[in-house]
Amino acid sequence: MATFELDSEFVRKLAELLGETGLTEIEYAEGEKRIRLSRAAPAAALAPVAVAAAPVAAAAPVAAPVAAVPPAQHPGAVKSPMVGTAYLAPEPGASTFVKVGDTVKVGQTLLIIEAMKVMNPIKATKAGTVTQIQVGDAQPVEYGEVLLIIE
């Protein structure tokens, strides 16, 4: 296995870029060399979501069995057909294509994945209600990763 020398100053600059832009992950590749930096989302940003989700689960016990299904195995899971960057809106500052609770039709654009500078619309393959959005705006996604759930 070949090793390469890690430029600590370059890593610091990437880390600063993460902080300045608010990104949670950044990846850089040059030839066979590849580096990925990631950081956890701030706990303060996650706390309100967890608090808001608890009363909904208590108020709707019928939904609990569906929530027990892992997103990847959910029959309404919309998975990424490619590696790229997910965008929830057509352009910065615009309204998102869909939000939790929206009813969607077959063929309706749910989000966009940018791959190799090409914007690829991801369309609904079934009609229903969006119950979960598993990715954030401008978040890197992998092939097969669950993007959202339609029930």
From TrEMBL:
Gene3D superfamilies: 2.40.50.100. One of its GO terms (molecular function) is acetyl-CoA carboxylase activity. It comes from the Bacteria. One of its GO terms (cellular component) is acetyl-CoA carboxylase complex. Keywords: Biotin, Fatty acid biosynthesis, Fatty acid metabolism, Lipid biosynthesis, Lipid metabolism. GO terms for biological process: fatty acid biosynthetic process. PROSITE patterns: BIOTIN, BIOTINYL_LIPOYL. InterPro entries: AcCoA_biotinCC, Biotin_BS, Biotin_Carboxyl_Carrier/Decarb, Biotin_lipoyl, Single_hybrid_motif. Pathway: Lipid metabolism; fatty acid biosynthesis. Residues 75-151 form the Lipoyl-binding domain. Pfam families: Biotin_lipoyl. This protein is a component of the acetyl coenzyme A carboxylase complex; first, biotin carboxylase catalyzes the carboxylation of the carrier protein and then the transcarboxylase transfers the carboxyl group to form malonyl-CoA. This is Biotin carboxyl carrier protein of acetyl-CoA carboxylase. It comes from Nitrospirillum amazonense.
